[in-house]
Recover the amino acids of this structure.
């Protein structure tokens, strides 16, 4: 009797393996890479954040000390890195997102050929990486009178002597924001444009019959609700992008830490502790904080745009 | 007044989204968009113009935005040069080409198979696994540079070609876009093929792959951008000069710390920047309509 049940069970297992096995086979290459390069590093970061680890000796568990130190004793983090990161992320994240939306909205109302050309130009900066652009920005904002911006302003008699744009704590952050916004019309922008073009035109007609009279009402009541999934995709892309765009300050100014920590973002702080001071446990704690911040803001976006 | 506004917006409505042709109401968008687009274009034009400037123009005072006497000297210099450790620049270039080509092909293979399973196969963990992938869209690779480094050391991938390629293949956005696109393929088509006795592999090759071509083009572009522009891998995981990439070489040209000849370096950096940028642009121009059709399926539901 028991054996019969077992046999039946085994047969069911084999059947489901035959049915589901091929699904797992197709999935396995990606799953393996995903685990090795995403899941394991995230897990390790979480574990290391509770240890002291200098890469030479084995990690020594120290409980919450890293987090406590981060909150109570890391003056640079509290005074510069955190405010900088939040300011930078708030301007380039929602700022870049709203800019992408408005540009996509205007583009969607143009005929196909001019729309394609303009969209291509707006998207093209996001194809460049920090590395590619370093030479360009360094020449444009160069601190001597040969710099293009300096030469232009000197020529207009707006400044009396050249400004050290990229070494100045006052200007570094605004320049980082401009450069990041310049390259923020990426995949999310294309998704929103494509989503907008897919909206059924009858919805707009129905809206105007229902008494929608202004463009803003139309955006709020028709456009955005009809493309919520793309809005959410775009939001996630711009949140990730703005927390990720950390290298920019170091690339522009050519040094980590950036001059007087003016452009120091959380990503640079991780590198500073991890690769310059070899305090890996502490750096891991900062990484965990960064991942939690991204997750938090993405959840927020999810709340706003998720379809029931 | 209110009536006038309403009438005007009504007349616009016919030409609102995706209009067939020119309409005077579009003029205001051009007025806003064109100056902005020109401003966005400036650095790109600058890249192109700078690459062809002779040294005298690169250091002219006052600096001129556009090139006056274009020359190919910067490109010739760049490829004639040996880097500080006796690796010819062409070596970096071919490394980049090879790495990018292999990465793009491998990435297409890995993400199409995964997307096929997640979209069309029936298995217990399907929903959970796709949710995990969607959460991973929020993953910020720079945050885990250190543990990733430890993993790569442990796997023995330091100083190998594979380290340029393998991490780039774990691309949640790619699988996400691909799966959303594959959802558009009717299930009946696959059931019909199954009744005809087609194997999973045959379905994947004969139905899925041809029907998700736009998504494949998109993944190709995304992987291309990620690997072609990647200088970080060379800096972190590669010690042999001969295994480093062109993007990395560009960083050595522009950083003042490397002690390279800064004056001559400027011209070569300008040429190298153009070489880095152009393939991105050409790929996108070629594949843009496919990308747009993928993006209309991109929503997170």
């Amino acid at each position: 009797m028991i054996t019969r049940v077992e046999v039946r069970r085994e047969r069911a297992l084999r059947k489901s393996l035959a049915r589901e096995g091929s699904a797992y086979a197709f999935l396995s290459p990606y799953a393996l890479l995903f685990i090795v390069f995403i899941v394991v590093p995230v897990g390790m970061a979480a574990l290391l954040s509770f240890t002291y680890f200098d890469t030479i000796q084995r990690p020594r568990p120290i409980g919450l000390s890293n987090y406590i130190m981060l909150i109570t004793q890391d003056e640079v983090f509290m005074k510069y890195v955190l405010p900088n990161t939040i300011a930078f992320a708030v301007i380039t994240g929602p700022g870049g997102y709203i800019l992408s939306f408005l540009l996509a909205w205007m583009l969607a109302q143009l005929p196909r050929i001019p729309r394609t050309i303009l969209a291509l130009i707006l998207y093209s900066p996001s194809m460049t990486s920090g590395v590619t652009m370093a030479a360009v920005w360094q020449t444009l904002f160069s601190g001597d009178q040969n710099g293009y911006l300096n030469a232009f302003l000197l020529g207009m008699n707006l400044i009396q002597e050249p400004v050290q744009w990229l070494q100045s704590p006052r200007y570094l952050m605004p320049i980082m924001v401009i450069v990041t916004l310049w390259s923020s019309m990426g995949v999310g922008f294309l998704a929103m444009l494509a989503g907008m073009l897919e909206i059924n035109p009858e919805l707009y007609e129905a809206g105007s019959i229902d008494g929608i009279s202004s463009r803003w009402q139309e955006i709020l009541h028709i456009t955005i609700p009809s493309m919520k999934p793309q809005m959410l995709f775009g939001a996630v892309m711009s949140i990730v992008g703005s927390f990720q765009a950390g290298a920019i300050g170091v690339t522009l100014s050519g040094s980590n830490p950036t001059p007087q920590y003016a452009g120091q973002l959380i990503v640079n702080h991780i590198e500073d502790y991890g690769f310059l001071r070899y305090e890996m446990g502490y750096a891991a704690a900062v990484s965990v904080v960064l991942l939690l911040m991204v997750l938090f803001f993405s959840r927020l976006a999810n709340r706003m745009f998720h379809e029931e | 007044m209110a009536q006038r506004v309403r009438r005007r917006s009504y007349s616009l409505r016919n030409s609102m989204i995706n209009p067939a042709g020119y309409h005077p109401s579009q003029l205001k968008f051009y007025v806003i968009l064109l100056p902005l687009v020109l401003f966005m274009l400036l650095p790109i034009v600058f890249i192109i113009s700078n690459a062809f400037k002779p040294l005298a123009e690169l250091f002219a005072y006052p600096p001129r935005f556009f090139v006056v006497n274009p020359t190919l000297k910067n490109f010739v210099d760049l490829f004639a040069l040996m880097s500080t450790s006796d690796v010819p620049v062409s070596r970096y270039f071919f490394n980049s080409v090879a790495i990018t080509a292999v990465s793009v092909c491998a990435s297409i293979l890995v993400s199409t198979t995964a997307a096929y399973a997640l979209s069309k196969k029936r298995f217990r963990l399907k929903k959970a696994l796709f949710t995990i992938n969607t959460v991973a869209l929020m993953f910020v690779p720079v945050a885990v540079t250190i543990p990733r480094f430890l993993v790569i050391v442990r796997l023995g991938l330091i100083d190998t070609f594979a380290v340029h390629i393998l991490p780039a293949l774990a691309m949640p956005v790619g699988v996400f876009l691909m799966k959303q696109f594959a959802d558009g393929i009717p299930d009946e088509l696959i059931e019909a093929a199954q009744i005809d006795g087609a194997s999973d592999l045959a379905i994947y090759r004969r139905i899925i792959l041809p029907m998700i071509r736009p998504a494949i083009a998109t993944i190709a572009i995304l992987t291309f951008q990620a690997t072609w522009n990647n200088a970080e891998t060379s800096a972190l995981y590669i010690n042999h000069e001969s295994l480093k990439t062109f993007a990395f070489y560009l960083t050595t040209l522009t950083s003042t710390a490397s002690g390279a000849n800064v004056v001559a370096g400027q011209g070569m950096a300008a040429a190298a920047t153009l070489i880095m940028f152009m393939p991105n642009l050409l790929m996108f121009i070629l594949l843009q309509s496919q990308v747009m059709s993928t993006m209309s399926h991109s929503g997170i539901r």
